[in-house]
Design a protein that fits this description.
By secondary structure, this protein is α+β, with helices and mostly antiparallel strands. It has helices spanning 53-65, 114-122, 191-201, 215-218, 230-240, 256-269; strands spanning 8-14, 35-39, 45-48, 71-75, 99-105, 138-144, 149-152, 155-162, 168-174, 179-183, 206-210, 244-248, 273-275, 281-285, 288-292, 301-313, 319-330, 333-338, 347-355, 361-375, 382-388. The protein is built from 6 helices and 21 strands.
Length: 393
């Protein structure tokens, strides 16, 4: 296998914490609760947590595999509802040709076979209309102690305890393409568990870290709830030599604009920061990361030809202003080309000049965020897509 073929793919299917939300103000980053999928260079599928995002992942894999058998290793960080509520809706569990291996810890409250008992209880009368026996897939359960290290198909997995009510595990996956760390639902302040988190994060190529609150919130009423902040994530990434930090587990009350602001502040202190978004994919190859975002422009689109001025920041964080021409316009976004390579998820302002009566020229002002940037050829321009957010203040 050539080095360029050694790629690990990390997909985000649910990024919200506590409870799913369908609020329009949260739509761009997504409202499903935690679920990630890591596909290693060897083709092994690891599923990280089973929030409501698991439903869409399952539907996608059923569409992909059809009647062919699929297998996956499912790592559940803990048993709070937002991390398990997608299990009854995971379509591959209902097909006998599939095989799912679940991993989590033994809960002090539940005792032996905790994960199996959690799954069974979710589907017990009167909470769910379908009995657990309808799940025909082969299922295996492994209870972990926290602190172990083992290998699955060439990927080394390390587990550590995190600081969260009733317990939570963080996971480190060392693949041939690089290292991914999943450390959600952790509150800084416990020295022993802070040390565990640092051990997990050390030198990671991608660190997915809890960023539900701010430090100010954690000093107030939300202290003890078991969550972290973007500030703590940035400090951890700097200290432990992390290459890419992903802000994760967004609060249901955190609108897109609030997450935008936290991402902007984090990028001022640490260059390679991303805000987790549904549909986001991080491709990891030899420690280098390429990020793509889903196409969120679902409205009616029409070809256009408007002169425009775009202002934003480049991938290196440098501000730019550039004249361009909008060639595709919808009610929620636009497409155009630039000579600059803008930063993904960065905010831009666009002024579109429109013809008016008597030869006069009008203006339409928009604020948006970069959702894709595709270079055209080796030295050509960059095809850019944005989704509109609020009007400029």
């Amino acid at each position: 296998m050539a080095q360029s073929d050694i790629i690990a793919r990390l997909g985000f299917w649910g990024v919200r914490g506590s409870t799913p939300t369908v609020d329009r103000a949260n739509w761009r980053y997504g409202g499903n609760t935690p679920c990630l999928e890591l596909i290693t260079p060897e083709g092994t599928h690891f599923i990280l947590d089973c929030g409501t995002g698991l439903r869409m992942l399952g539907n996608k894999r059923v569409q992909q595999y059809g009647s062919k058998p699929m297998s996956a290793h499912v790592f559940v960080s803990h048993y709070h509802w937002d991390h398990i509520q997608g299990i009854p809706f995971f379509a591959p569990l209902y097909s006998e040709q599939n095989s799912l291996h679940f991993y989590s810890f033994r809960s002090e409250a539940l005792g032996r076979n905790s994960l199996q008992r959690v799954l069974d209880a979710q589907m017990a009368t009167p909470y769910f209309p379908v009995d657990v026996n309808a799940m025909a897939a082969r299922r295996q359960y492994t209870e972990m102690e926290g602190g172990e290290s083992f290998e699955i198909n060439g990927t080394r997995i390390t587990t550590r305890w995190l600081n969260h009510p009733q317990g939570c595990l963080g996971f480190r996956f060392e693949t041939a393409a690089g290292t991914v760390v999943y450390a959600t639902d952790n509150e800084p302040g416990n020295k022993a568990l802070d040390k565990s988190l640092r051990e997990l994060a050390s030198g990671a190529d991608i660190l997915v870290n809890d960023a539900q609150y701010t430090r100010e919130q954690l000093q107030g009423a939300r202290k003890g709830w078991g969550h972290s902040s973007w500030q703590d994530g940035v400090d951890l990434a700097k200290e432990m030599g992390v290459r890419n930090l992903v802000l994760f587990h967004h609060d249901p009350e955190s609108t897109d604009r609030i997450v935008d602001g936290r991402l902007r502040e984090a990028r001022q202190q640490f260059e390679s920061v991303w805000a987790a978004a549904e549909g986001m994919v991080m491709n990891l190859c030899d420690g280098a990361v390429n990020v793509t975002l889903r196409n969120s422009r679902t409205g009616l689109r029409r070809d256009a030809k408007f002169a425009a001025t775009v202002s934003g920041v480049t991938r290196e964080g440098k501000p730019f202003t550039e004249e361009t021409e909008v060639h595709d316009l919808s009610l929620n976004g636009a497409s155009f080309t630039l000579s600059h390579l803008p930063q993904l998820q960065a905010e831009v302002e666009m002024v579109i000049r429109t013809p008016g009566q008597g030869g006069s020229e009008g203006e339409m002002r928009f604020r948006g965020h970069i959702i894709h940037r595709d270079p055209i050829g080796t030295d050509g321009p960059v095809a850019v897509g944005i989704i509109f957010s609020d009007d400029p203040e």
